[in-house]
Automatic annotation (TrEMBL), chains A, B:
<dbReference type="InterPro" id="IPR009057">
    <property type="entry name" value="Homeodomain-like_sf"/>
</dbReference>
<dbReference type="Pfam" id="PF00440">
    <property type="entry name" value="TetR_N"/>
</dbReference>
<keyword id="KW-0805">Transcription regulation</keyword>
<feature type="DNA-binding region" description="H-T-H motif">
    <location>
        <begin position="37"/>
        <end position="56"/>
    </location>
</feature>
<dbReference type="Pfam" id="PF21943">
    <property type="entry name" value="TetR_C_46"/>
</dbReference>
<dbReference type="InterPro" id="IPR001647">
    <property type="entry name" value="HTH_TetR"/>
</dbReference>
<keyword id="KW-0238">DNA-binding</keyword>
<dbReference type="InterPro" id="IPR054129">
    <property type="entry name" value="DesT_TetR_C"/>
</dbReference>
<feature type="domain" description="HTH tetR-type">
    <location>
        <begin position="14"/>
        <end position="74"/>
    </location>
</feature>
<dbReference type="InterPro" id="IPR050692">
    <property type="entry name" value="HTH_transcr_repressor_FabR"/>
</dbReference>
<keyword id="KW-0804">Transcription</keyword>
<dbReference type="GO" id="GO:0003677">
    <property type="term" value="F:DNA binding"/>
</dbReference>
<protein>
    <submittedName>
        <fullName>TetR family transcriptional regulator</fullName>
    </submittedName>
</protein>
Amino acid sequence: MAESAALTRQEQKERTRAALLDAALELSQESGFAQISLRQVAKRAGVVPAAFYRHFASMDELGLALVERSFATLRRMIRDAQRDPDVFAHIIDAAAEVLVETVKVNKAHFAFVARERVGGSQAVREAINHELDLFVSELAVVLARLPNIENWSSDDVQMVARLFVRNMVANAEEVVEMPDGRPDLEAKIKEGARRQMRLIVLGFEKWRS
Amino acid sequence: MAESAALTRQEQKERTRAALLDAALELSQESGFAQISLRQVAKRAGVVPAAFYRHFASMDELGLALVERSFATLRRMIRDAQRDPDVFAHIIDAAAEVLVETVKVNKAHFAFVARERVGGSQAVREAINHELDLFVSELAVVLARLPNIENWSSDDVQMVARLFVRNMVANAEEVVEMPDGRPDLEAKIKEGARRQMRLIVLGFEKWRS
DNA sequence: TAGTTGAGTGAACGGGTGTTCACGGCGTGT
DNA sequence: ACACGCCGTGAACACCCGTTCACTCAACTA
């Protein structure tokens, strides 16, 4: 059975674990994580159901691991975007662009987060909302340095950050629901996101308390 | 003829149907509509599983009936609010107030819509998103008559309506997730919704194209 | 090299699932 | 007063589910 190279015990275990995570993510795209079964996941991963327990104590635990993995890619998206000088120059156009593109590439992860944020088990829901709260706070720090905002109360900044993240999530949901190979729809979503953000930013100047 | 007990055949049937709908709504509050079973619903409704089929061909069909029922209460909320002269006078404060109060009273229906909008079966999801699109269009008609908006393009008006409905849905989700008997949290959500709407409205004046 | 460890196996269990079917009983139209 | 129609019944079916157990056998360790 030695295909490529001899695998150490640890490598093999990690590989199976990853196969289980991939299988679960894949299956949950079709019907939602909450409705897939341990047996389906094991089967798709090419493993007997009992072997599942060598890696996770329950489907809930696997779900939490998936949350972590999904938010890791989300954070990477933000980090990469901040490094790009074009993004800072035309922040709104870039944000819409980056959002749609990244969601398209990591569709499975975003679909998982969007769905399970409200539809999942209690534990998974709480984990996702906690991560999103962290995300709002991170964005608030960035926003607080913008010209029109620098002397707002921190409550107000937090509010605006929530407004943005909320819309980001909603736009991500739209991209996820979007059928493949429809560049027209994609452009429409991008344009919609851009205009919504511009409208919100326009309100910045006149805001008081 | 008999005033108290005797029920006509039709009345009795409708009563069982309603019991099934109520049972499903109740159970879906605890764990989500997609994870409850036909047998659980029948049991809670006080009926044998096979009897279910006298009223619905499948759980999916029952789900669609629930979507209809839930949006009926949502529409009633808007209709009632428009009749109230106070609402037109202080439109934003009133909207936040009405939203939170109505969601609190009809928690089950809003929870159902919020969850199944993204987490439900394909058919249920599509039905809900269709209803929400109708709702956006209705709101767009109302918004188009506002002073700063009256000569916007219809695309722009639709965009703003989407922004509002999106936030309404998100705020409704928050109220639904809110534990009972926490007037402080409730006030916070209300205040957050109010400020978000004010910020968006501020952008109206300066909007072009 | 011999012994230990632990990832993966295959079978078995008890229980919940959707769906079907013949049947009983009661409101109903004749 | 009678026969019909239809809602609800209870049993049966064939599945799929999560979980357990003793097991194998290859990678590791001493």
